[in-house]
Amino acid sequence: MAILVTGGAGYIGSHTVLRLLEQNYKVIVIDNYSNSSPESLKRVSEICNRSPIVQQGDICDRYFLRKIFESYPITDVIHFAGLKSVSESCVKPIEYYHNNVCGGMILLEEMQRYCVNRLIFSSSATVYGEPERVPLDELSKVGGTTNPYGTSKYIFERILEDVSIANPKMNITVLRYFNPVGAHQSGKIGEDPNGIPNNLIPFISQVAVGRLEYLSVFGNDYLTIDGTGVRDYIHVMDLADGHIAALENKKSNRRFNIYNLGTGVGHSVLEIIAAFERITKININYKIKERRAGDIAECWADPSLAEKELGWKALRSIDDMMRDSWSWQKKNPNGY
Ligand code: NAD
Ligand code: WQD
C-alpha cells in the first residue's frame, strides 16, 4: 500500500507527509515546485528519519502520472497540488482553472486508468462564500464563491461528486479546511509564502521578524466582537492528523464524503494580534485600514461530523498556533 501525495512539498502537504511517514505509510510525493522547494521534504526526513519517494513533475502531465502509477503500488491519492492565492486567481483565472480543475481531471483520468480508487481532496471553506449563518456545517449552502480560486474548488468538488456517483468503485473524501496556520513544533518546516504574504499569520510573523514594517488590519467596522474579521484558525498539524483520520475512515459507508476541518471557534484579527504578542512578547505594529475587497465578516466551522465519523478533532490551541508559527519564522527568517 502506497500513498501518492500531490503537492507534497508545499505547506500542508509537507506536514501531512511527515505524519504519514511517522505512521509507517509508504509515501510517493509529486510536486512541480511552482510554490515550494525540495528543501521542505529534506527537513521532513531530518525530523522523522524516514523519507518519501519524491518525483518532480506536473499533475497536468498525464505521461508523467502514468510513469508514477506504473512504478509504485499506489492505493490512495491525497491531492494537495494546486494554486491557492485568491488575489492572483483574479488576475490569472485561466492558470487557476487549468491547474485546479484540468489538473485534477487529468489526475482522475489516470487514477481510473490504473484502478486507483481512493482520493482525498484539499478543498476550502471558501466554497461556502458569504455564510448565511455560522457555524458552517457541511450542509450549508455552497457555490457563492467570489473569485476564481474559490470557484475552482467548488467546481472540482462537484466533479468529484459526479465521478463517485458514476463509478461505484470510487471512494472520495473532500476536506474543507478553514484557516490553516502554524508549523511543526520543531520549527524546521512551516509556511513559506512567495513575496509579501496575503494571509494574516505569515504577515504578522514577518512584521515581528522585521521583514515588514506594519500590519494593515483590513477593516474594524464589521459586525463582530471588536469590528475585525473573525476566522477559524486551525493548526497545520491538526490538519495533517485530519488526513490520516480520513485515510483510515472506517465509519462512513458513503463513497463520497465531505468533512469540515476547523476548530469550531472563531478569533478576530485583534485577538490574534494580542495572542501573538502575548506568546512572543513582541509588539506588533499595526494600522487600521479599509476593508479588503471580497472579505467576509466571520466564518467558523461546525467540525462535529469529522469528530463523529473520523474520530478527529483539532487539539491545538491558538497559543500553540502562535508559538509554532513564530518558532518557524524565527529559525527561518527568509523561509527555506
Ligand atoms: P502550497 O502552495 O504550499 O502547496 C501546493 C503544492 O502544490 C506546492 O508545493 C506546489 O509547488 C504544488 N503544485 C502546484 N501546482 C502543481 C501542479 N500542477 N503539479 C504539481 N505540483 C503542483 O499550498 P498549501 O497551503 O499547502 O495548500 C495545499 C492545498 O490545500 C491546495 O490545494 C490549497 O488550495 C488547499 N487549501 C489551502 C488553504 C490554505 O490556506 N493554505 C486553505 C484551504 C485549502
Ligand atoms: C484572515 C483575516 C482578513 C491579512 C484565505 C482564503 C481562503 C483560504 C484561507 C485557501 C481576515 C485579515 C489578513 C492582513 C488582515 N485559503 N487580514 N490583514 O481571507 O480568511 O482566507 O486563506 O483556501 O480561501 O480566502 O485568510 O489570513 O487572508 O485573512 O487584517 O494583512 O485577517 O481581513 O479577516 P482568509 P487571511
Structure characterization notes:
With 336 residues, the protein is α/β, with parallel strands linked by helices. It has a domain at 2-181 and 235-262 and 302-314: 3-Layer(aba) Sandwich (Rossmann fold), CATH 3.40.50. Helices cover 39% and strands 18% of the residues. The chain is built from 11 helices and 14 strands. The protein has helices at 11-22, 39-48, 62-71, 86-91, 93-113, 148-166, 200-208, 236-247, 269-280, 304-310, 318-331, and strands at 2-6, 26-31, 53-56, 74-79, 118-124, 171-177, 179-181, 215-218, 230-231, 233-235, 256-261, 267-268, 286-289, 298-299. It has a 7-stranded parallel β-sheet, with helices on both faces. Strands 12-9-14 form a 3-stranded mixed β-sheet. Helix 5 runs parallel beside helix 6 (148-166) and helix 9 packs across helix 11. It is globular, with a radius of gyration of 19 Å. The two termini are 31 Å apart. 47% of the residues are buried. The protein binds nicotinamide-adenine-dinucleotide and UDP-4-deoxy-4-formamido-beta-L-arabinopyranose.
